[in-house]
Amino acid sequence: MTRWLDADEQRTWRNFLSATQLVNEALDRQLQRDAAMPHAYYMILVALSEAPERRMRMSELAARAQSSQSRLSHAVARLEERGWVRRDRCPEDRRGNIAVLTDDGFAAIAAAAPGHVAEVRRSLFDVLTPDQVRALDEICATVRNTLER
Amino acid sequence: MTRWLDADEQRTWRNFLSATQLVNEALDRQLQRDAAMPHAYYMILVALSEAPERRMRMSELAARAQSSQSRLSHAVARLEERGWVRRDRCPEDRRGNIAVLTDDGFAAIAAAAPGHVAEVRRSLFDVLTPDQVRALDEICATVRNTLER
DNA sequence: ACCAAGTATATGAGAGTTCAAGTAAATTGA
DNA sequence: TCAATTTACTTGAACTCTCATATACTTGGT
User: Fold this and answer.
1) B11 vs A contacts (CB less than 8 Å)
2) What is the pLDDT of residues B17-40, one digit of tens each?
3) CA/C1' separation B125–C26 (Å)
4) What is the largest CA-CA distance in chain A?
5) What sequence ranges are listed for the domain HTH marR-type (chains A, B) (predicted)?
């Protein structure tokens, strides 16, 4: 009953797996090497740095940083140990926590950003034509809208 | 000096991260739920199952399964515990090891494959038009050829 | 006011990954 | 021929992630 992948689909699928893994590995290696953090942490810090007053509820932060709640909890615990994030109790909902980016945290991400952007360009944008970038954007938006939630 | 991402590039980049992460999470969840293995293990078993006599040198297997040598070593150790893979010493190069897919291992992957292929279709091929699939193939091939090695 | 159900987050255990270092065998080259 | 280098693979520790479970608070009926 299974509709197997034909030769073209196999090729596409394997190219997809290779390409996405290579990009992710390049990102992670660069960040780990130059900024001592995994990409997941970087995304958390970026999300916080863009929030008003650099503070956000944990659950919203999880959504923005594309993290599960559990992963975020663990990550923020580590980031707190480094002094990059602080947790405030939420006054209007006392179950809630608010993650706050500290000045040290902001400095850390400001220092990490240029190298990271360079790596993003090196591993993705620089190797594609403008048309390919446009196509990729649409493809990813479609996938995202379909699978999200 | 940093050339930051403009608004379009930001959108593309975030769509790319979301889409690829969603696909990978869907794959991993399906395999973990229905076949009790992570995607990385699945790729190792697939690579072995396609090899002549279902056996391959560790280093070549790492390349085919897109795994680091260290990851592969750990993974094969686990797969060996399950009785899905065996390790033979390599006669002509006694440093080498040859991973061999056992009958149980072959049965495991044969059982896992249909659900996995279904998930691949659900999360990628079914949501894209044929043109998009072709474009994605080219894009990923380009990225792959650039970053590989 | 009370209790059941739902929500927000944390926590712990188990598993996989990475990185650095370790072992063993092959190769190089003086 | 033998020391130095390189190659193949493994190992251990540190870290992150996932999943299941726990905790604390809130909400919606009754």
Assistant:
1) 137
2) 999 999 999 999 999 999 999 999
3) 46
4) 58
5) 1-145
